[in-house]
Protein: Carbon starvation protein A
Amino acid sequence: MTWFLLCVGLLLGGYFIYGTFVEKVFGIKPQRQTPAFAQGDGVDYVPMSKGKVYLIQLLNIAGVGPIFGPILGALYGPAAMLWIVLGCIFAGAVHDYFSGMLSVRNGGQSVPNLAGKYLGRGAKNFMNVFAIVLLLLVGVVFISAPAGLLAKITGVSVSVFVGVIFVYYLLATIVPVDKIIGRLYPFFGALLIFMSVGLTVALVASSEHTMLPGFEVGDFFQNLNPNDMPLWPALFITIACGAVSGFHATQSPLMARCVENESNGRFVFYGAMIGEGIIALIWCAIALSFFGGVEGLNTGMGGNPANLVYEASTGLLGAVGGFMAVLGVIVLPITSGDTAFRSARLILAEYFNMPQNRLPKRLLLAIPLFVIGAVLTQVDFGIIWRYFGVANQATAVMMLWTASAYLLRHNKLHWIATVPAMFMTTVVISFLLNSATLGAGLPMTLSTVTGLVLTLVITAMLITRIKGRNEGMLADEA
Structure:
């Protein structure tokens, strides 16, 4: 319990201390007009209060990732919670802050255009394709997971819920942002709070389950190897949402179009990531506690994190409370899946320079996305999840390097973005070189050394090419 409270306290301290420092480095300008007012269209550019924008941002980014990821990551022991804390404060929240605030400074543009502006045209073209692929994978993952849980608690066929969720996603993708998303999310937020707080209190008060059964310092350094995937680098791919997630870079521009003032950015973008980190900590703690430790978790989960969600929710809160908690878990992926398709539509709109103020044009881009998504739902969930994890972290790498390039161009302290960019670049390269199923299947030592060398080369090239070159600065950034 002490360890859990310490982790939560560190996350909150990170928001007030390191978050304030990051905001100072960026240099907010409260007097500057935001895109919500400068480009208001009543569809995607709609001014909203700080509290509402924060809540929508939190629900947008907190899909099934900060639940399933930490549960799977808990198989690596207490090191998972350490990564959630450090990754969230120094990488994930920095990533989310810059993906949001750079969009605010650039008229609400999406991540491909931001990457293109600060890293070059090649990065823009790469990110246009990569972001669409990632968002489609996210949309499919966030249909399959909630549909499976709904089927489990109701007994209705999974395919029925897949169809219902698809219809909701289509509506949420094409109607103005304040009509469905802005109105339903406060209710969804209440379910999220109930789920998070209720399960934590129930676990602490439980006489059958001990909160984080005792562990020693040496447990942090065990190279546990669940599913033949060693802690380095697999832990940092497994726990993405809750630590650092590239998917968030596709979501932050949605709220960058609704922020009323730049001074709200730290609360909305950095703060929402801290909130997601706390959700991830709760589920990691439940995973390590409910079945009595790592071995019990591996057996009780049966390879599917949804089993733990259902068993822990009903076991700790009873039938009614468990039902409400599972609904809270279902809400998270649904409130990210709808905005995943919405983000994909807007990225395509920017690419084709197609204004989205008319419904037929929104349908023209949305319908093909949903057709492809429907096809992908037929692919095995486990395969989709693995590809999603790698694509997610690769997107995070690109966004962190984009933030670093922005800071370099403006002669600001770029290391707050460069260091996490270097770490995550090494993680992704090492994982792809080592993985036998998704990559080259090389030995771990060779994969890690190669990852480190390539990361250093990329860092040197970026700093040499960009540092001090201010000719790319636009007047509206001043």
User: Anything to note?
Assistant: The chain has 19 helices and no strands. The radius of gyration is 21 Å. Confidence is low (pLDDT under 50) at residues 471-476. The first helix runs from residue 2 to 16.
